[in-house]
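Exercise 7. Predict the joint structure of the components listed below.
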Amino acid sequence: MFETEIPESKSARTRARISEAAIASFIERGYADTTMRLIADRAGVSVGNAYYYFPSKNHLVQDLYERVQREHAGAAVPLLAEERGLVDRLRIVFESGLDTLVPYQRSAPGFLSAMIAPDSPINPLSADSGPAREMTVSLFREAVSGAQHRLPTDVAALLPEALFVAYLGLVLRWTYDSSAGQEKTRRMLDAGLRLLAVSLPFVRMPGLHQTTRELLTLVVEMRS
Amino acid sequence: MFETEIPESKSARTRARISEAAIASFIERGYADTTMRLIADRAGVSVGNAYYYFPSKNHLVQDLYERVQREHAGAAVPLLAEERGLVDRLRIVFESGLDTLVPYQRSAPGFLSAMIAPDSPINPLSADSGPAREMTVSLFREAVSGAQHRLPTDVAALLPEALFVAYLGLVLRWTYDSSAGQEKTRRMLDAGLRLLAVSLPFVRMPGLHQTTRELLTLVVEMRS
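Solution:
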């Protein structure tokens, strides 16, 4: 289920064990019912030792975010190497992102309640989530910059961060999706990408170009 | 700030007093820190009496939703009478909705955390929220049905419920908006409506028509 590297030092192995225990507990018990004590017990370390590696439960959530992003990039990058069309490249990033999230679908509503507050440190738009967010934005940046497209330069530059916000919207809808295999979310993504493919050529039109840039700028500003 | 009717009976007056006390407390203390005891004290009734009128705090939230929707309709309907263009009519409904929410902006993040869980009875997509949701959907239905437009019939029929989901997305963004007067949300709405105005004529094109219908159908299905 997870990419597991073989940690070199005892310290790295302990850290990895705590991280694994936290993820297992998040999946089994959910975010709210997972405590540092439960994580330490499961990892076979003292609570003090767990706090030494991760100063709070939310640091373990950030660790999980970064792990999920590494897996996401690991799945998307080889597929991107084979595809030049912009919308098809975006499809790769969105779809592999949903694939990577599958193990967390049942526990997602509990995470959502904890992360949705604007001042939550585990909010994906928070400063604390910056490193994990930047990994996903980079993936969208690679999808856009490696594509054959005729988008205006300013629109193409805004797209990766705006796509990250769209991705959060998709994941929000996915969290609510009780259909088998979250089929409804995948069909919604597919229909959205097909509409995007038809609409993109029009973005070069003078009136549309400016309004699109305005809207994307405002979407990107949601982060700050 | 609120539409106040003069309740006819003692019972209706007591109910209204409890409702006012709840809203005042939600605004001052937020959702989480408002209890039935605080509401009863503030309204000058016993806790038992408060529970007689509203079986739970969440019933008072539904009461608040319905009140906000009545205010929203009260502001939008007279403006709709003066306007025939579809996008301008949608602008009226979206903008008057944001106006109606102004008193609740500071307490909105607390409500968001409580309402975002898919199984929360105060989730705007829940069965319990059906009556309040239906009031907003009706407003969008009136905006669409009273407009001069050339949209395909099936798309026009799906639009009101899909617009309700878009409205929730806008309110979610507004909850995060710390700019003065939530100016960024209003500019985002404006740019979105201008893009919509340019895009709508294309919906009649055969390829776009079917994909738009698919996407709207999937958006509407988020409710169930």
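Discussion. Chain B has two domains: 1-55, 64-221.
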